[in-house]
Task: inverse folding
């Protein structure tokens, strides 16, 4: 066996080290596309996504997004958490408990105050406007309830505490000259529990704000005949008093079993990211969101409407630097 000189041993060692570094680089760059072609640092504890209640669209979207991210970013750990909804999600992000979250646009006004309370100004940023949420006031088809005013004295769920449903329900009842504390038998359930209670006759109506179709409402409609109450007459009031994000919309016939076209209100929803996540990582997260929107749509039909032209419209919440870089990178 030939004896290696000191010089040859040194060259061999340098070569081995160089090959090892290159191998690590290839792993780190798996799926890399310009302008982010350096290794992306993952948070030590992974990425935590705060969604919403059981049976809601936020939950379904969060689970689908987790699968996409874990496939696109090998080695990234993604945890999906249920929550009370939009306001709860904002609080969790402001306090550093989660990294990504879904919210309804009508709760965005709370961002500055929550950041201030948490001592973290500027922590909450947006990735995209992802889809529109529809206000749904659900009753059994044999119910005598035909309008908001018919809810007086009835057992009504206005959504779980800390949800955008609660905010919207309160605003709608006020638009109909009703108080959610005194004019109804107020309940505070999430969509799944509300649907179960309505089916059992232990609830007269419930509010829900979510994408179409919402799993819990669809499952309810498949077993118990339901109706959605028209709410479009109150959109102008909501628009004037609270913001232009409230718009008239229609829940199309066929969304739920035997439920005809129903005019209602809609409000955008946003996917948010904490500034504790690096710009490089959020670039890749945003890229994955758009690259795999068809795959996500297999689970969440609402995600089909995701479009780069409207995604940047996140109102008072600025884009995360990583998301902003992504949108600039795809401009023609």
Result:
């Amino acid at each position: 066996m030939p004896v290696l000189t000191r010089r040859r041993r040194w060259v061999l060692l340098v070569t081995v080290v160089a090959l090892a570094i290159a191998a690590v680089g290839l792993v780190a760059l798996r799926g890399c596309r310009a302008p982010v072609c350096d290794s992306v640092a993952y948070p030590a504890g992974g990425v935590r996504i705060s969604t919403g209640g059981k049976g809601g669209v936020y939950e379904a979207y969060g689970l689908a997004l987790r699968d996409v991210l874990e496939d696109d970013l090998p080695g990234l750990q993604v945890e999906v958490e249920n929550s009370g909804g939009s306001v709860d999600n904002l609080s969790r992000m402001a306090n550093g408990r989660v990294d990504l979250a879904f919210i309804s646009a009508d709760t965005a006004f709370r961002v500055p105050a929550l950041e201030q309370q948490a001592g973290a100004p500027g922590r909450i940023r947006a990735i995209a406007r992802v889809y529109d949420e529809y206000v749904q006031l659900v009753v059994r088809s044999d119910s005598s309830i035909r309008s908001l005013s018919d809810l007086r004295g009835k057992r009504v769920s206005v959504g779980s505490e800390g949800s955008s449903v609660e905010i919207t329900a309160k605003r709608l009842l006020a638009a109909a000259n009703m108080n959610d504390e005194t004019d109804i038998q107020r309940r505070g359930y999430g969509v799944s529990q509300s649907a179960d209670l309505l089916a059992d006759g232990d609830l007269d109506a419930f509010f829900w704000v979510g994408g179409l179709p919402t799993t819990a409402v669809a499952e309810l409609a498949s077993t118990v005949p339901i109706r959605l109450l028209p709410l479009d007459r109150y959109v102008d009031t909501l628009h004037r008093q609270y913001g232009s994000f409230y718009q008239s919309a229609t829940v199309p016939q066929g969304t739920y079993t035997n439920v005809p076209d129903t005019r209602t209100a809609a409000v955008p929803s946003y996917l948010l990211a904490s500034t504790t996540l690096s710009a490089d990582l959020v670039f890749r997260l945003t890229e994955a969101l758009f690259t795999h929107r068809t795959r996500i749509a297999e689970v969440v039909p609402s995600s089909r409407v995701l479009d780069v032209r409207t995604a940047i419209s996140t109102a008072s919440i600025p884009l995360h630097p990583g998301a902003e870089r992504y949108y600039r990178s795809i401009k023609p």
